[in-house]
């Protein structure tokens, strides 16, 4: 486990972007599509929980590539596994398999407590895992009780229910599941049949799940909506309602899975028909997965109905296996649960913080004013990477190896960061 206690102070705290970063950002502006806005910094290396920019300034990475770098940066177990696999066998088509692919699938089935007949499909990202889940739902719409069934039948049930505030990805199927109008409207028409229910309303859910519904998809904690957990009992109610209606329950653990919440999966205790994973699974190497639980869900997609060139690639699956084994070997579930609880308690005591949410090391906290974007900038100048999913909401999703000492450097700096953010906001600066 990392023993670092925090970043060295930035070379020129408060000075914004340095000259080397500036040069790269000019080149970025001339060559990269502008879908992400201007990057905050140009990062050149990382180690443990710190990263360094092109000007040599260090930052404590409290965002972890948005819940991706579970083992931090350049963890020796991950770099060794990826290097070893690339030296041995880098890629095969899906006409073949590899030991890494099989071993990771088996490991995922083990840690999810999957019943007999459960299966894994590997993709390259969260949105692709959810595309596969969308297609699974369509096939359930063809095979659900009261429909014709048969591998070639068009679905009779095409409704899929998701929640307001949901984020499931940016490709067309996953975008149809995503709620935010600003992401959806420019790309309409999206695949049809998706309805969004009010967040956390069990009665609305029960009323909506009937024989027209092929699947319900839920995030146990909505990360992009500001780390918003489903109310207690909601997942169980969804399990019961979907089972009674012959609909699939699909749980999107792309952001919450693989130890992020101090448990392997935030939905533990409720067995869905399918679960999607990505982000932390590869620890920084791109990978996604759809896990189907039990014989019935696992038989819905038949040979030829879905595919991918890179999904299940030996290097990506070797990375995934190394991440899972390292989480176990370094006891990172317990560790992240403990560090997260301490961090949340410390955040709640900071003046100007009005609410703290989340589990483990997926943390959202609200401020008493719309200064979150300015706080991101001020934090960066103070040597911390954080994120603002809303105007008054900040999010932390650091590596699971974060130490309590490193976390404390942030909570100690936060009052100053918020003061700087208030000052910048009052001058109209981001
Ligand atoms: C819950 C959830 N699902 C899906 C996605 C999409 O994953 P990706 O960006 O890897 O496509 C995200 C990404 O933030 C997510 O948080």
Question: What order do the helices and strands come in, and which of them pair?
Answer:
Elements: H1 19-31, E1 43-47, E2 50-53, E3 58-61, H2 64-67, H3 76-88, H4 99-111, E4 119-123, H5 126-143, E5 159-163, H6 172-177, H7 181-184, E6 194-197, H8 202-208, E7 213-218, E8 221-222, E9 228-229, H9 234-245, E10 248-252, E11 274-277, E12 288-292, H10 294-298, H11 314-329, H12 332-348, E13 353-359, E14 362-367, H13 372-381, E15 384-385, E16 387-390, E17 393-396, H14 404-426
Parallel strand pairs: 3-15, 5-6, 5-7, 7-10, 10-11
Antiparallel strand pairs: 1-2, 2-3, 4-12, 8-9, 11-12, 13-14, 14-17, 16-17
Helix pairs in contact: 3-11, 4-11, 12-14, 13-14
Tell me the name of the CATH homologous superfamily of the largest domain. Type I PLP-dependent aspartate aminotransferase-like (Major domain)
The side-by-side strand order for the widest beta sheet comes to: 4-12-11-10-7-5-6
- Main beta sheet: 7 strands, mixed
User: Distance between termini?
Assistant: 36 Å
Q: Which kinds of small molecule does this entry bind, naming each only once? A: pyridoxal-5'-phosphate
Global geometry: globular
Number of E strands: 17
Mean of the pLDDT scores?
Answer: 95
Oligomer: single chain
The portion of residues forming beta strands comes to 15-25%
Which regions are unreliable across 5 or more consecutive residues at pLDDT < 50? Answer: 1-14
Number of helices: 14
The top level CATH class name of the largest domain: Alpha Beta
């Amino acid at each position: 486990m990392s023993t670092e206690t925090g970043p060295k102070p930035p070379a020129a705290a408060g000075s914004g972007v340095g000259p080397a970063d500036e040069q790269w950002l000019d080149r970025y502006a001339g060559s990269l599509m502008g879908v992400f806005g201007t990057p905050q910094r140009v990062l050149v290396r990382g180690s443990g929980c710190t990263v360094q920019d092109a000007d040599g300034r260090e930052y404590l990475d409290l965002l972890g590539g948005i819940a991706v770098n579970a083992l931090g940066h350049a963890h020796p177990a991950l770099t060794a596994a990826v290097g070893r696999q690339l030296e041995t066998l880098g890629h095969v088509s899906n006409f073949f398999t590899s030991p890494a692919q099989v071993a990771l699938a088996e490991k995922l089935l083990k840690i999810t407590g999957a019943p007999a007949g459960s299966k894994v499909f590997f993709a390259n990202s969260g949105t692709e895992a959810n595309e596969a889940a969308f297609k699974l739902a369509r096939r359930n719409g063809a095979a659900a009780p009261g429909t014709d069934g048969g591998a070639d039948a068009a679905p009779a049930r095409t409704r899929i229910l998701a929640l307001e505030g949901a984020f499931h990805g940016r490709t067309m199927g996953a975008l149809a599941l995503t709620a935010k109008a600003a992401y959806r409207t420019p790309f309409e028409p999206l695949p049809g049949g998706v309805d969004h229910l009010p967040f956390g309303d069990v009665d609305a859910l029960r009323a909506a799940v009937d024989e027209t519904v092929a699947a319900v998809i839920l995030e146990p904690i909505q990360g992009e909506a500001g780390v918003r957990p489903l109310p207690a009992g909601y997942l169980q109610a969804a399990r019961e309602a979907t089972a009674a209606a012959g609909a699939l329950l699909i749980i999107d653990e792309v952001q919450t899975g693989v130890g992020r919440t101090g448990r392997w999966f935030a939905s533990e205790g409720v067995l869905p028909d399918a679960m999607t994973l990505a982000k932390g699974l590869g620890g920084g190497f791109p990978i996604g997965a759809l896990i189907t639980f039990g014989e019935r869900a696992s038989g819905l997609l038949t040979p030829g109905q879905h595919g991918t060139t890179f999904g299940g690639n030996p290097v990506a699956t070797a990375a995934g296996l190394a991440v899972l084994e390292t989480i176990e070997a370094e006891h990172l579930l317990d560790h992240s649960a403990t560090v997260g609880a301490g961090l949340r308690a410390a955040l709640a005591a900071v003046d100007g913080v009005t609410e703290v949410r989340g589990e483990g090391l997926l943390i959202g906290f609200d401020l008493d004013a719309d200064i979150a974007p300015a706080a991101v900038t001020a934090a960066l100048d103070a040597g911390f990477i954080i994120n603002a999913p809303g105007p008054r909401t900040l999010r932390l999703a650091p590596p699971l190896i974060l130490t309590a000492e490193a976390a404390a450097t942030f909570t100690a700096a936060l009052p100053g960061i918020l003061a700087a953010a208030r000052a910048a906001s009052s001058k109209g600066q981001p």
